[in-house]
Amino acid sequence: MNINLELYKVFYYVATTLSFSEASTKLFISQSAVSQSIKTLEKNLNTTLFNRNTKRVTLTHEGSLLLQHIEPAINLIHNGENNIMETRSLNQGKIHIGASDTICKYILLPYFKKFHSVYPNIHLQVTNRTSIKCVDLLKQGSVDFIVTNLPNKNIGSSMEVREFYKFSDIFIGGNDFEELKGKRVSLKELIKYPLLMLEKNTTTSQYINGVFESKGLVLSPEIELTSIDLLVELAKINLGISLVPDYCMDEELLKDVFEIKTREVLNERSLGIVSKKNIPLSIAGRKFIDFILE
């Protein structure tokens, strides 16, 4: 089927804005031209891509399926354009990174500062998602690369993984749990206490649930949250025992909480930089990764 690729571009902007008028503004063409392009595409594909009424535009099931394929292609074209426009002296350009807010705050922040001081004209854009959802961003072509917890079962064979940082998960508690200080507590004993964890469908949750299941234990957290920082704060006010990465701990925090040692050794995990194997990174992207790996 030979369909003008420009029609798919029009479809992408209508599908992502859900507005014919907004798409026309972004494309610098008339609204009637946008409408005609969509009608032509629907005719060529013999399907309806949008539900239209006087109040709003929505994607049909077929439209949603098409967007899943078109969005990575459009992002790939945009990335190619940006790469070509970069100068080899790195006087301009953009890097789009996907990472969790925890990884950004505790791991990447010094690299952002260092990179910006050396290449102030390179624009850094960061999208914060969980490590699992960051893989989806990479698949869609919405980011150049991601920094994620490993292992991450969503990473596919078409992706390149570069490990760069080892860390351990630790349990922390406040003064109300002082009877555990200095002891080695079994996981079986630990589940008798109120446990505070990251929400399900995160790499951390999947990992720690696997650890407990391997011991024949069922983990039922008292509270599940989306933020490591909140887990730390709740531990400080004695709402329960939180599981956090060790890189979040510092001397100041240890004034309010303490590490609760377990008899069972939790395996080290790592952080990794993940990119697509078949898509070359921009000069700026490669340089930023070098800053991390060096």
How would you briefly describe this protein structure?
Helices cover about 45% and strands about 20% of the residues. By secondary structure, the protein is an alpha/beta fold. It folds into 3 domains: about 5-75, Arc Repressor Mutant, subunit A; about 85-165 and about 270-294, Periplasmic binding protein-like II (D-Maltodextrin-Binding Protein, domain 2, 3-Layer(aba) Sandwich); about 170-265, Periplasmic binding protein-like II (D-Maltodextrin-Binding Protein, domain 2, 3-Layer(aba) Sandwich), CATH 3.40.190.10.
Would you mind describing this structure in some detail?
With 294 residues, the chain is α/β, with parallel strands linked by helices. The chain is built from 10 helices and 13 strands. The strands form 3 sheets. A 6-stranded mixed sheet has the order 8-12-7-11-9-10. Strands 4-3-5-13-6 form a 5-stranded mixed sheet, with helices on both faces. It is elongated and about 70 Å long. The relative contact order is 0.14.
CATH architecture of the largest domain: 3-Layer(aba) Sandwich
Overall number of domains: 3
The biggest beta sheet reads: 6 strands, mixed
Structural class: alpha/beta
CATH topology of the largest domain: D-Maltodextrin-Binding Protein, domain 2
Q: Give the proportion of residues in helices.
A: 40-55%
- Tell me how many strands there are: 13
Question: What is the subunit organization of this protein?
Answer: single chain
> How confident overall, as mean pLDDT?
91
Highest-level CATH class of the largest domain: Alpha Beta
Low-confidence stretches: none
CATH homologous superfamily of the largest domain?
A: Periplasmic binding protein-like II
Distance between the termini: 48 Å
Strand order of the largest sheet: 8-12-7-11-9-10
Spatial extent as radius of gyration: 24 Å
Counted by DSSP, the helix tally is 10
**Percent strand:** 15-25%
What general outline do the C-alpha atoms trace?
elongated
Query: H/E series, N to C?
Result: HHHEEHEHEHEEEEHEHEHEEEH
